[in-house]
Amino acid sequence: MSLTMKLLDAWKRVLGLSRLESGESVVVLVAEHSHPDHVAAAKAAATLLGTRSVVLELGESSAAALRMAGETTGVTGVTALTGNTAAIAAMKACDFVIDLMGIDRGSEQQEILAAGTRILLVKEPPEIFIRLVPTPEDRERVLAAAGKLRKAKTMHVTSAAGTDFEVALGEYQLLIQYGLADEPGRWDHAPSTFVAAWPNEGSANGTVVLAPGTTLLPIKEYLRTPVRLEIEAGYITRIEGEFDALYLRDYMGKFGDREGYAVSHLGWGLQPKAHWTALGMYDKRQTNAMEARSFAGNFMFSTGPNTEGGGTRNPACHLDVPMIGCSVSLDGEPVVVEGKLVQAIARG
């Protein structure tokens, strides 16, 4: 089967599992950086499912000037959708949005979701999308893990590298991603397979040591030297180490915003088909690094915004840092041990 046919088949499977039905209306949201093969395959798959689709293309926003090397995940906040009432109205009026642009989870996205529209974001290249295409089993595994996370009051993370970090949970919503927008008002990102939660305000305390091999996103690099983060009352207060610490201090400092140092969503990856090493095989412009966020047993540490969880913090600086070799427990019960999923969690 050719790559074109494999991609079309993957889109048909994803949209079918997202419960897209004949007669529903679909907006395919694109921008200059959208992958043309995805645009063509998504339109064709939606048509084959009997839907009524329209392509909505938006230009770049002024925030694009803040992006280094055209990176679309490094800066949050203003997008081409911000203040675009006509585009927002069109998406609120449809049943399903295939987001090949990247709305960036701002207030506009929340407004569209509140209208009952489902949104599925896709930013990975076709090869990764095909290889990690979501399945019903992925969904069940993620929902089982989310059930445990939703009931938890504390998360404790340790590692042989020196991490000893704890937060309280329950104040904010969860981030549940299994790559399917299968319920009214649901947003998801395909392919992705993980769960996360935002810590209660001011509750994050301890030490996080980013060991060599940790993935730093959106920089899309593996750390070569250890970085020690001291965290007090919900914020990173010190960044210590050698070259990678110097780089991280300078990168975050350029934003000039204390809120960028706040601890954001925390969770773990659940996708056995994803590879920790995969990021090293791609040019930085080729991938959004969802595989790095999803590989089974990673601990996801992040910084910056919490608006998606129901908070008010929305700085431009946002880091996702999938860590290797960590142990994660919820209310004292292990869910990840030294970078490996607890068997019951792996089975879902």
Kindly describe this structure:
- This protein is of the alpha+beta class.
- The protein has 9 helices and 20 strands.
- An 8-stranded antiparallel beta sheet has the order 14-13-10-6-5-18-19-20. A 5-stranded parallel beta sheet has the order 2-1-3-4-8, sandwiched between helices. The protein has a 5-stranded antiparallel beta sheet with strand order 7-9-15-16-17.
- A hairpin with a 2-residue loop joins strand 13 (227-232) and strand 14 (235-241).
- Helix 1 packs across helix 2 (36-48) and helix 3 (85-92) packs parallel to helix 4 (107-114).
- It is globular, with a radius of gyration of 19 Å.
- The model is unreliable at 62-66 (pLDDT under 50).
The helix content, as a percent range, equals 25-40%
Which stretches are low in confidence, meaning pLDDT under 50 for 5 or more residues running? Answer: 62-66
Gap between N and C termini, in Å? 32 Å
Contiguous helical run count: 9
Overall pLDDT metric: 93
Largest sheet: spatial strand order: 14-13-10-6-5-18-19-20
Proportion of residues in extended strands? 25-35%
Along the chain, the helix and strand elements come as: HEHEHEHEHHEEEEEEEEEEHEHEEEEEH
Number of strands: 20
**Compute the gyration radius: what is it?**
19 Å
SSE class: alpha+beta
In total, the number of domains comes to: 2
Backbone shape: globular
Strand count, sense and closure of the main sheet? 8 strands, antiparallel
